[in-house]
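Possible regression after last week's pipeline update?

I re-ran a chain I had predicted before the update to compare outputs. Posting the input and the new output here so someone can diff against the archived version. Not blocking, just want to make sure nothing changed silently.
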Amino acid sequence: MAFNLKKVLKALLLSSNQPLAIKDIQAVFTRFHEQMTLPLPGVVTDYASPVDAAAGDEAPVTPADAPAAEEPVEVIAEIPEDNELYQDVPSLITATQIREAMDLIAAELRLSDEGLLLIEGSSGYRLMTHPRFARWLRILRQEPPPVKLSQSALETLAVVSYRQPVTRTEIETIRGVSAEAGVNKLLERDLIYIVGRADLPGRPLQYGTTDNFLEFAGMKSLDELPASDVLSSRQIDEWLQKATTAPTPTDTDMGLADEQLPLEGVITSTREFVVADETTAFASVEVVAEQATPDAVDGGRAPTA
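New output (post-update):
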């Protein structure tokens, strides 16, 4: 009977509480072949000849005269090996063979409908219970029901996943609202983490997604993020650049006609009038005072006799 890779992989999955990566599975088969070439502990494989042990005129030691060997405290139990599991094990198990066997196991679990699913995550393959049994598991573990993320937190998570590493200022620029509450909630859920600091004034913190985010989204890597059909990354970069360095709005941008006096011109003219040369201003006042008549100065009343 040929070696059954699928059964061995299924046993490894059931016995492990951690994800099994392909390299971890290949390491198991490597250690298997290494152990097959080593002698079993407690088993004597070489005996010295009585003739070789005799030296000079000494009489050879017979097996009857030899001291009794100390009996081993523990003896390895010989388990009858299953040809389907331990015979004709290939020296090299390729990643393609492992993936094909895992696909067969996943298909069998789905057809059997026994409440188990085989999921391939970012860290490897893992057996998980079906989501429809989640309530029973929460009762067993005495856990509260899960809390859904708000729309604001989901939008913040989407910005971080597509734009990482990203600062909170960039998130707020894209969304147009404060992102402090959303960032704190995602940090608490271990969906994002602090990657480092940006090379910008003030050295703001940068955020990126964690491995828990990949499991939360059901992806193996960030390459599986759906492509945006609205804006590309280049267009978003250009929009952010324009948003942070926005020019002064013109009359056309404000809906004013071109023949009207620009607002900047009015402010500039008024400012120049106010801050005119003091010497000229005082000279104009003196000329007006000299040319003024007594009637004008006295409020227009006629002089008295």
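Follow-up from reviewer: compared with the archived run. The beta strands are 116-120, 125-129, 166-167, 192-197, 205-209. Marking as no regression found.
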